[in-house]
Specification:
Strand content: 5-15%
Helix content: 40-55%
Structural class: alpha/beta
Order of helices and strands: EHEHEHEHEHHEHHHHHHEEH
Number of helices: 13
Shape: globular
CATH class: Alpha Beta
């Protein structure tokens, strides 16, 4: 069957993490319909392959790519495998995330929400940077790194990133508030990381645009599964409240899709490079991060601790792995 596409992304390659469900799935579909070759990268092979098969039936150029962000090593291995498989990468969408959940450490000894949402994406992105830079050096290139953050970063008031203990803060254990604060801490780390990465790329004269996006409050499949773990009497109340007040995944994907594909993002670098987009009345609008996300000393602390912790797991020369 001939695909129904908007050919604006034809010839470009995209990689969407967490693309098997929720906002990531809708982003994956949208980019494919615009003509890009899109890799759906996810740890959930069953749902990922099903999503890819559906788009293939409609004639789109899509592939499933197994991705486990649960450890730094598996994130690095996936990125190296992809770089050896593909000759270019135009759009990287860092969408995968663990939502608010019970306290658990990853095999790296880092609380899993931080390990997957932040460290996994940092390792993946940096390992893919040579391929992204190679693509960006081509005439007419438009290379973008889009990271799905959350305005939940505003809930943190005294977060520090100097030690492993601070990354692993439990915020009171498995209460609803504690789980939400751990998720917010991971999103704060992403929020500090993106403009820092943009500054690094600008200093290297790399023609790459980094954009952080907030999807809004979205009732995704992941949120539904999380609600199902709540006590019986709470479950149905929460399902109704979320259905009534939260956006659909289709609406939540709009900022990601805009950041990854809109021509004005490339045409207006002073506006969009290192920017933060929020959904306002169905449009992606440049906004401001708040609170600790503005703390440059904290950003420096995060960068230094991240580099040290990754080097402890992957070796001092991890960026040079091929």
């Amino acid at each position: 069957m001939a695909p129904t596409t908007q050919p604006g992304l034809r010839g470009r390659v995209a990689f969407v993490t967490g693309g098997a469900s929720g906002v990531g799935l809708r982003t994956f579909r949208a980019l494919a319909r615009m003509g890009a070759k899109v890799y759906l990268a996810d740890v959930n092979q069953t749902d990922g392959l099903a999503a890819v098969a559906g788009m293939k039936r409609d004639g789109h150029d899509v592939e499933f790519f197994p991705l486990d962000l649960g450890t730094m090593r598996t994130a690095q291995q996936a990125a190296l495998s992809f770089a050896n498989h593909e000759s270019r990468l135009d759009i990287l969408v860092n969408n995968a995330a663990l939502l608010s959940k019970e306290y658990e450490l990853s095999p790296d000894g880092i609380v899993d929400t931080m390990s997957v949402n932040y460290f996994g994406h940092v390792v993946l992105t940096n390992t893919l940077l040579p391929l992204l830079k190679k693509t960006a050096a081509e005439p007419g290139a438009d290379v973008r790194i889009v990271t799905v953050g959350s305005h939940g970063h505003r809930f943190l008031k005294t977060q520090r990133f100097e030690s492993l203990r601070q990354f692993n803060e439990d915020y009171g254990g498995n209460t609803v508030q504690g789980q939400m604060m751990r998720y917010s801490a991971a999103k704060l780390a992403e929020t500090l990381w993106m403009p820092d990465l943009q500054k690094q790329l600008d200093a290297e004269n790399a023609n790459i645009t980094c954009v952080l996006v907030h999807p809004g409050s979205v009732y995704t499949e992941g949120a539904y599964r999380r609600v199902q773990t709540l006590p019986f009497y709470v479950r149905y109340i929460m399902r109704f409240v979320l259905w009534l007040t939260f956006d659909t995944p289709e609406t939540g994907a709009l900022t990601s899709i805009f950041a990854a594909s809109a021509p004005e993002v490339h045409a207006q670098p002073d506006t969009y490079r290192g920017s933060y987009l929020m959904p306002v009345d169905g449009k992606a609008v440049v906004s401001r991060v708040v609170g600790q996300a503005l703390d440059q000393a904290l950003a420096k602390e995060l960068h230094e601790s991240t580099e040290r912790m990754i080097a402890e797991k992957l070796g001092e020369h991890w960026r040079e792995a091929q």
